[in-house]
Structures are given as structure tokens and as C-alpha cells.
């Protein structure tokens, strides 16, 4: 564009010289001559104006030239103030974010099967997850997670919740498999503790039974009777003992929901468990195993992550795309986050812009600005040449008509 503008200026100069030789031949040459003369003036004036923005025309120390290099620091401060006043104010950020459906856009992208299967997305998510999991202090993070969970559980009334869950299980008949498991568990406990049962029978038997050896037969009868009872309860859905167990579960559910004394005992037990160091150590071990397993799973897949990672991203995208209430919550969170960032870090952001521009040398700044807007500035030279020529043509015509 610079060559085109300069070429047009050279063309006007050639026309000016050529038309000057034929002024006496015909009056029309006077119009051509006036057009070319004014076009040269307009083109040269705009060349000077455009050049003076970036450097000194012809290297001459003309005042108020090389404006951008000479005022680099002031331009940096002005740019920073402009960004701070017009873009990074909480009102502007909130208004702009209010018109964006950020969650919907992200959801539509992630829900696209091609995006969910894109190895680059999965690799990026996997690498980010590994870096986060490896960079965080396991003990500190585990303690923070445990403290957060404990704080939430501490606020929660466990007893009514457990009572409601137990009621729902009984109403839906889902407690029956639980009873079967309890019976099987009782059988395993009895099997592991047969020696303890025999010892109890021996200690409670009198001397005559021990002398005659009947205590051993009595112990065997007790153990066989317990095994038989458990087997009958397990195979018979209508066994009376099952009804007793169900009645006990119903009473327990009612007590958990309505009995203040039982609720207090449950809350006390909950507090004791939460403050028990053994529970803290157990949770720390659980968290560390989860963390190590996640890291190993992602690394073993070559950084792409397990296959379910893409499925999870797709499901998350579908939820964000289709659930308008979730979109509203995510968009509200994004808006508040952006406003918070602009409020808290707006000054640091514009300071970064200002310091970056200040660190540029004059040549770098000039080249970058000229590379961004130079093409349009060369159009100014072309337009100046044409407009100057038209003005000169108009003036020549008026002077010929009036004088």
C-alpha cells in the first residue's frame, strides 16, 4: 500500500510535468494541470502527516514529528487508562457477561461427539489434572478436604436423614437384601467365634456337666442350633424372626426421626467419629489412594486419560447445554468471577499493559503500531492525493469562470 500511494504521487508529478507543456494547446490541459498540481500537494501533505506519526520525514528534526516514538511512555499510560476506564470496570464486565451464555457455549462444544473424542482436549484435561494433583501438598489438601467434609457433616442432622432413608428402604422392600446380608454376616461371625461360644458354655456349665463331658455336647448343640436358626431365617422369607427384624428396623427409623434422645445420641456419636484421630488417619489414607490411582490411571493412558474422561466431558457438556437452571448458575458464577477479577486485579492488569509498552523500544513500538494500522494510513495518502486533485480541479474551474 505504501508503494501504491507513492506510485500515485509519482504519477501525479509526471502528469503535472507533461500537462505543463501543453497548456497553450487547449484549455482542457489547464484542468489536467491543476488536478495534478493539487493532487501532488495533497499527497505530499498526507505523506508528511502519516510519516510524522512514526518517524522524522527525510530524517529532518522537524518539531512534532516521530510522535509515537517520542511519546511512547505517555501512550502506554493512556492505553492503560483507556482499558481501565472503558473495559475493566465492574459495570462494563457485568453488562458484557450478562449478555453471554457462557455455560451454553461451553456445553454445546463439549457435547459435540467430535470434541468429546478429541485426543487434544482429553490430553489437556488429563495433563492439567495430573499437574494439579501432583503439585498440591497431599497432606495439606487431604486435611483441607477432610475439614471441609467434616464441617458440612457437622452442620447436617444425621439422625432424621438416616430415619428417612430407612423408611424409604422399608417402603420399597429394599431392606430385604439387607436382612439377608445381616444373616449371612451373623453366620460368618458365628463361624469365626465358635471357640468363644464353646468357652462361654464351658464356663457357665456346673461341675457335674463338666465332669461328665456334657458341657461339650451342650456347646455343640447351642452352635448347631444357632446355625440351623440362621439357615431357616435365610431360606424362609416368611420366618417370624424376619418380622421381628423388620419391626426393629421400623422402630429404629421412627426413633431416628422423632426421638430427641436417640437423635442426641446419634449426633454425639457423629461428633466423636469426626474428632477421632483414627478416622482422620483413615480418610488421609483413602484420599492418598484416590489421588495416586487417578494420577496412575491418567499417566498409563499416555496423557490422554482414561476413556471415561471423554464420556464425562460429553455428559458435562450435555448437562450445561440442556439444563437451563444449571446454565443460569454457571453463568452467574462466571459473571461474578469476572467482575471480581476486574475489581480486584483490574489495576494490575492495566499496569501490566503499561509496563509492557514502556519496555518496548521505540522501533518495536513503531513497527507494531504501523503493522496494525499502516495499511489504512496509506489509504489516507491515496485519498489525500485524489481529494487534493479534485479540490484543485474545482478551484481552477471557478477561477476560470469568475476571472
UniProtKB/TrEMBL annotation:
<dbReference type="InterPro" id="IPR007383">
    <property type="entry name" value="DUF445"/>
</dbReference>
<protein>
    <submittedName>
        <fullName>Uncharacterized membrane-anchored protein YjiN, DUF445 family</fullName>
    </submittedName>
</protein>
<dbReference type="Pfam" id="PF04286">
    <property type="entry name" value="DUF445"/>
</dbReference>
<dbReference type="GO" id="GO:0005886">
    <property type="term" value="C:plasma membrane"/>
</dbReference>
Amino acid at each position: 500500500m505504501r508503494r501504491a500511494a507513492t506510485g500515485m504521487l509519482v504519477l501525479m508529478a509526471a502528469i503535472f510535468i507533461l500537462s505543463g507543456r501543453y497548456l497553450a494547446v487547449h484549455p482542457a490541459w489547464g484542468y489536467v494541470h491543476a488536478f495534478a498540481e493539487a493532487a501532488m500537494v495533497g499527497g505530499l501533505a498526507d505523506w508528511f502527516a502519516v510519516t510524522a506519526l512514526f518517524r522524522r520525514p527525510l530524517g529532518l528534526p522537524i518539531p512534532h514529528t516521530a510522535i509515537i516514538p517520542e511519546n511512547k511512555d505517555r501512550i502506554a499510560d493512556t492505553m492503560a487508562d483507556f482499558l481501565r476506564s472503558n473495559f475493566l470496570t465492574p459495570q462494563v464486565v457485568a453488562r458484557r457477561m450478562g449478555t453471554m451464555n457462557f455455560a451454553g457455549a461451553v456445553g454445546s462444544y463439549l457435547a459435540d461427539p467430535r470434541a468429546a473424542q478429541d485426543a487434544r482436549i482429553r490430553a489437556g484435561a488429563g495433563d492439567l489434572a495430573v499437574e494439579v494433583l501432583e503439585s498440591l501438598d497431599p497432606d495439606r489438601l487431604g486435611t483441607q478436604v477432610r475439614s471441609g467434609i467434616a464441617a458440612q457433616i457437622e452442620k447436617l442432622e444425621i439422625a432424621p436423614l438416616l430415619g428417612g432413608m430407612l423408611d424409604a428402604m422399608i417402603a420399597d422392600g429394599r431392606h430385604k437384601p439387607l436382612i439377608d446380608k445381616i444373616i449371612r454376616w451373623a453366620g460368618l461371625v458365628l463361624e469365626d467365634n465358635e471357640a468363644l461360644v464353646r468357652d462361654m458354655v464351658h464356663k457357665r456349665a456346673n461341675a457335674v456337666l463338666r465332669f461328665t463331658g456334657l458341657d461339650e455336647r451342650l456347646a455343640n448343640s447351642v452352635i448347631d442350633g444357632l446355625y440351623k436358626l440362621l439357615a431357616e431365617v435365610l431360606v424362609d422369607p416368611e420366618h417370624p424372626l424376619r418380622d421381628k427384624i423388620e419391626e426393629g428396623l421400623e422402630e429404629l427409623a421412627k426413633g431416628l426421626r422423632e426421638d430427641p434422645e436417640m437423635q442426641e445420641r446419634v449426633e454425639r456419636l457423629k461428633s466423636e467419629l469426626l474428632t477421632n484421630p483414627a478416622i482422620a488417619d483413615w480418610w488421609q489414607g483413602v484420599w492418598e489412594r484416590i489421588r495416586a490411582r487417578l494420577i496412575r490411571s491418567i499417566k498409563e493412558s499416555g496423557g490422554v486419560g482414561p476413556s471415561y474422561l471423554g464420556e464425562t466431558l460429553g455428559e458435562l457438556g450435555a448437562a450445561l447445554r440442556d439444563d437451563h437452571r444449571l446454565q443460569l448458575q454457571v453463568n452467574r458464577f462466571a459473571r461474578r468471577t469476572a467482575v471480581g477479577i476486574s475489581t480486584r486485579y483490574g489495576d494490575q492488569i492495566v499496569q501490566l499493559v503499561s509496563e509492557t509498552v514502556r519496555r518496548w523500544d521505540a522501533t518495536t513500538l513503531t513497527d507494531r503500531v504501523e503493522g496494525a494500522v499502516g495499511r489504512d494510513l496509506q489509504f489516507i495518502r491515496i485519498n489525500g492525493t485524489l481529494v487534493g486533485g479534485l479540490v484543485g480541479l474545482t478551484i481552477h474551474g471557478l477561477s476560470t469562470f469568475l476571472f
